[in-house]
Design brief:
With 230 residues, the chain is α/β, with parallel strands linked by helices. The protein is 36% helix and 21% strand. The longest helix has 17 residues, at 93-109. The two termini are 30 Å apart.
């Protein structure tokens, strides 16, 4: 993702002021030469990278997932320090449209308890968190809109009552597929987003960075795309 984001940023006329990898540290970023940072690393690095950038006065776009447990505290830190953070479980424009369709479908299906819902996500074998951050976002949207579900759980273990199952699959060279299915004894309804490559994620992240520049606060892709809340 880092290399792809670099390519997209350069193609859109931006200059790369620093590249942080396993051999360097985010502390090397210089505010004088950096308008914004884009963070796609690991869950155990993301929170500290956000705090460092906020302390340096550098707006940051975060695509790393798996740090939700620290979200509330991190958002508070950004506000307290008048920083700029834009985070998303997925920067694909198509996925964010999928999110809105998912919310609407969940509301509609709430009136039809004979249908049982499930979520499936498929990613490349290098993806470490399971389920994916996108799948968790999808599940939480469904839980908020559908009275039958109060929590989500990986389908690999026995499900408790009112639990929305998520099945996570890891297959080589797969950019990412997310599906929601409502199934009854007579038919099923499915909503699917399939990424053909990772370019959509990188393009969305750079667009988000362009949008965030000059703003203060905490934002998501819903703000970038000006999507009306369903």
């Amino acid at each position: 993702m880092g290399r792809l984001i670099e390519q997209v940023a350069l193609s859109r006329g931006h200059v790369i002021s620093a590249i942080i990898d396993s051999s360097s540290n985010v502390e090397v970023i210089n505010k004088e030469h950096t308008d914004i940072a884009i963070e796609f690393t690991k869950p155990d690095c993301a929170v500290q990278n956000i705090r460092t950038c906020v302390e340096k006065g550098i707006p940051i776009v975060v695509g790393t997932t798996g740090w939700n447990d620290d979200l509330h505290q991190t958002v508070s830190f950004v506000h307290e320090n008048q920083g700029s953070l834009l985070y998303a479980s997925n920067f694909s424009i198509g996925v964010n449209v999928f999110f809105e369709l998912n919310k609407l479908l969940a509301k509609l299906m709430n009136a039809h308890p004979e249908y049982h819902a499930s979520v499936e996500e498929i990613h490349h074998v290098q993806k470490r968190d399971a389920p994916s951050g996108t799948a968790i976002s999808i599940a939480e949207q469904m839980i908020n809109a559908h009275e039958a579900y109060t929590n989500w759980q990986l389908a690999e273990s026995e499900l408790s009552e009112n639990t929305l199952p998520i099945q996570a699959k890891r297959i080589p060279e797969v950019p990412g597929t997310h599906s929601v299915t409502y199934k009854s004894n007579i038919d099923s309804i499915s909503l699917t987003h399939e990424a053909f490559n990772r370019e959509g994620f990188a393009n969305g992240a750079v667009i988000a960075a362009e949008w965030l520049n000059g703003k203060h606060g905490v934002f998501t892709m819903q703000d970038v795309l000006n999507i009306t809340k369903i």
